[in-house]
Design a protein that fits this description.
The structure is a homodimer. By secondary structure, chain A is α+β, with helices and mostly antiparallel strands. Chain A has a single domain, classed as Orthogonal Bundle (Arc Repressor Mutant, subunit A), CATH 1.10.10. The first copy, chain A, is 28% helix and 26% strand. Chain A contains 3 helices and 5 strands. In chain A, the strands form 2 sheets. A 3-stranded mixed β-sheet of chain A has the order 4-3-5, with no helix packed on it. In chain A, β3 (82-86) and β4 form a beta hairpin. The longest helix of chain A is centred in the middle third of the chain and has 14 residues, at 45-58. The first copy, chain A, is globular, with a radius of gyration of 18 Å. The mean pLDDT of chain A is 92. The interface between A and B is medium-sized, with 33 and 33 residues. The structure holds a DNA duplex.
DNA sequence: CAAAGCATGATATTTCTTTAACAAAATTAA
DNA sequence: TTAATTTTGTTAAAGAAATATCATGCTTTG
């Protein structure tokens, strides 16, 4: 019998979702490939792109554009307003920060819909979290 | 006698500089082609890219990266800190705006070298300037 | 104004990111 | 477990931006 078009659960698809959930930051397709490869050795770049496309259409993934860089992707629940990019490592992070009345402070004629900070510099490694009973 | 490697003055090169000087905003190579073509009909895209490269090396031009867009270029004397992009028209503008102590307000671990606002929305046409005796 | 050599325009090529094609493998429903 | 259908990995190919090539045209210098 012919089935309706439905999505299947695969190791690869689960791995892609897992690494995005754990990263909590925007990942490039290449970063996703490297991280997913730990869970599913041999996973191919086409699988990454294929699932990015599908997940974005489903609304499970959201894209993040960065100046002069390929797009990154993040789970919507991890998305924040502003961006920080460590240009050495290519690691991108998002963060929130209130900029009160920022839209009203723009020059005449600039009616902004979105306003985000884009910062570049160096990311210091956060102190290791102590595990309970660790 | 063999000449030292020197730069020559051409219609094309002058036109490229002129349009950048008049625009006072970041232009994409395609925008530059269209605008320069008014001054020098038939100018080719290769000439645009060639001169962009040369002028950037000379420090006469400075590049401006925009998320999800090809690079724009601006004369250094027109460069400002922040960016506004009209996504409809593709027109980019720069502006200054003080964000006091912004670097100190970033989350722990983010040591920023550069902090710029990136705004998208709609650009309203500025009111026409009246010329003296106009 | 003539020779030397840089610049131009048209086009081919490169580079990088993303998508397509397809046989084989994996998943699902019965 | 079987049969149907989706997914995967490999590899080719598409798209877009930027660069290289090269015959011809311009600038410059003497």
């Amino acid at each position: 019998m012919k089935q309706a078009n439905t999505f299947r659960e695969t190791k690869q698809r689960n791995a892609i979702h897992t690494i995005l959930d754990e990263a909590k930051r925007p990942l490039s397709p290449q970063e996703m490939l490297a991280l997913a490869d730990v869970h599913v050795p041999g996973i191919g770049i086409a699988t990454i792109y294929r699932n990015i496309k599908i997940m974005v259409e489903q609304g499970v993934l959201s894209s993040v554009d960065i100046p002069g860089e390929p797009s990154r992707f993040i789970l919507p629940q991890h998305r924040k307003t502003h961006l920080f990019l460590d240009k050495e490592s290519g690691v991108a992070m998002m963060f929130d920060l209130d900029l009160p009345g920022i839209k009203r402070r723009l020059p005449r004629g600039m009616k902004a819909q979105d306003v985000t900070l884009f910062c570049t510099g160096t990311l210091q490694a956060p102190p290791k979290k102590k595990k309970a009973k660790g």
